[in-house]
Amino acid sequence: MDYKAYIAARIPALGVEADELAATVTVPPDPALGDYALPCFKFAKILRKPPAAVASELAAAYPVDDVIESAVAAGPYLNFRIGKKGLARETLVRIGSERENYGVSDMGKGKTVCIDYSSVNIAKPFHIGHLSTTVLGGSLYRIYKALGYRVVGINHLGDYGTQFGKLISAYRRWGNREDVERGGIHAINDLYVRFNNEATEEMEAEAREYFRLIESGDAEANALFEWFKSLTMAYVSAIYDRLHVTFDSYAGERFYLDKMQPVIDALREKGLLVESQGAQIVDLEAYGMPPFIVLRSDGASLYATRDLAAAFYRKKTYDFDKCLYVVAYQQNLHFKQLFKVIELMGEPWAKDLVHVAYGMVSLEEGAMSTRKGKVVWLEDVMNRCVEKAAKVLEEKNPNLENKAEVAEKVGVGAVIFGALYNNKIKDIVFSYEKALNFDGETSVYVQYTCARAASVLAKAKEGGIAYMDAAICTPNAQEFELLKALREFPDVIVSAAKNNEPSLIARFAVDTAQKFNKFYIECKIMQAETEERRAFRLRLTDAALVTLSNALTLLGIGIPEKM
């Protein structure tokens, strides 16, 4: 139920539309004041009465019922209390019937969202810097799908550039097929690093020639490139599986090489393309931005050109209602330029392009450089987290079954949650100790809460206790706080999509887990004072487990049954 809308519909006419009135209803900072509040300052001007007088008159006239059990004036505010038993019934019945679909809606039905994320580079391993774009994009993919949108996940592969000429040169000098097949992506990267460490002018020229051969369609050069690509995709697919991330398209930069010219022609026809020092640019000085370079002085395209072509291709192919680019904030200017150019071309869908900027994730090891070989591989971070998780689980529960499987869910989950818990724009320094803290604001804490709830329900099942159709009791303070949190979950998903901010779901999960654990500690479940109250609390425990599991699933985090 939308309580704000319900409250607004039962307030006497105040000279504003019901939707506007509902938007005015807020949640008091102190729960002791009430569950919702209506500030009366705005209406005081309309009615020409003091705000406190308006609140008092509205309180006297408000028709309380089972849904809203009280309406009390407190100075210039009208505070409302929800009917506890009615809220409990509505929440538990809905969660009990919807289960894994709790929070799912069809608000996005008939609409398409494209999400460009991860965008790995061919022939380079995943490093920690790719973590945020990958898990942030993956979570947004699931969030929009949960809201009924058609979602197209796009991995805009970095598969074009002179670095592939360098790689072929390095392979021909120092590599052999057997060693590269055995070493995979890391063997390729070692060759690339060695080339950059030892490169001479002659080697650089050779690399440029190999890249020219790739571009011109040379069979041997392209066969090597495709081999490097296949090794890369096998490697990244395993990482994606562990992170529970999927894609619908792997169209990378090379895919758009033959799709640039129509866009370049359109720019020229519209008088937007001008020459500057031999290069072809779109002048954006009037908009406070440097020029958008479309073609270099030698006629070569840039990744900006290919991004432009990709935007037009995606609109034509998917007819998106929104296209998200999950890319680090260092690219803020690039996307402002890109979107402005499309707007200047007269395309109304320019407003539907969104740069979902995020901060960087780093470890104490410091800055990374693929060329110098100083880099923190994401797989190493995940493996180390899983190893540490296994040790912690061994200490806490030596007899735990499927320990390796649980450690994988806990360790990888900690890495994902570490990147998603804070507001996406913040830089993050990843800490293994903090990420695996059973008592902190972590995925481990939420997973452990799920395992605790599952354990209680398993004991009830073993004892033959039925609870899913149990009578609804009037909830006490702890039960009511947990119920209010569970009821908010569908709205949290909508807010997460509206703001492209999965951290809202991560923080909801921690907050709800805290409320469940307070309920667990302060309210005896299996030893409740009556059988009716015991069944009610078991039903509430089940609802908490369903909701927390759904929240973790949207983040891409597994839920162990036992820990």
Write the layout of secondary structure elements.
Layout lengths: L2 H7 L8 H7 L11 E4 L1 H7 L3 H11 L6 E7 L2 E6 L1 H15 L13 E5 L14 H16 L3 E5 L8 H12 L2 H22 L2 H15 L3 H25 L16 H10 L3 E4 L2 E4 L9 E4 L7 H16 L3 E7 L3 H13 L8 E6 L2 E2 L15 H19 L6 H18 L7 E2 L2 H4 L7 H20 L14 H11 L1 H10 L4 H20 L8 H25 L8
Parallel strand pairs: 4-5, 4-9, 9-10, 11-12
Antiparallel strand pairs: 1-3, 2-3, 6-7, 7-8
Labels describing this entry:
single chain, flat, alpha/beta, 21 helices, 563 residues, Rossmann fold, 12 strands, Gyrase A, domain 2, three-stranded antiparallel β-sheet
What does this structure look like?
With 563 residues, the chain is of the alpha/beta class. Among the domains are: 3-82, Arginyl tRNA synthetase N-terminal domain (Gyrase A, domain 2, 2-Layer Sandwich), CATH 3.30.1360; 112-257 and 306-362, HUPs (Rossmann fold, 3-Layer(aba) Sandwich). The protein is 54% helix and 10% strand. It has helices at residues 3-9, 18-24, 41-47, 51-61, 84-98, 131-146, 163-174, 177-198, 201-215, 219-243, 260-269, 303-318, 332-344, 378-396, 403-420, 432-435, 443-462, 477-487, 489-498, 503-522, 531-555, and strands at 36-39, 68-74, 77-82, 112-116, 150-154, 273-276, 279-282, 292-295, 322-328, 353-358, 361-362, 428-429. The longest helix is centred in the middle third of the chain and has 25 residues, at 219-243. The relative contact order is 0.10.
Kindly report the name of the CATH homologous superfamily of the domain at 112-257 and 306-362.
HUPs
Could you give a short account of the major beta sheet? 4 strands, parallel
Q: Could you say which overall geometry the principal axes of the C-alpha atoms support? A: flat
Strand order of the largest sheet: 5-4-9-10
**How confident is the prediction overall: mean pLDDT?**
91
Which topology of the domain at 112-257 and 306-362 does CATH recognise? Rossmann fold
How far apart are the termini? 35 Å
Radius of gyration: 28 Å
Number of helices: 21
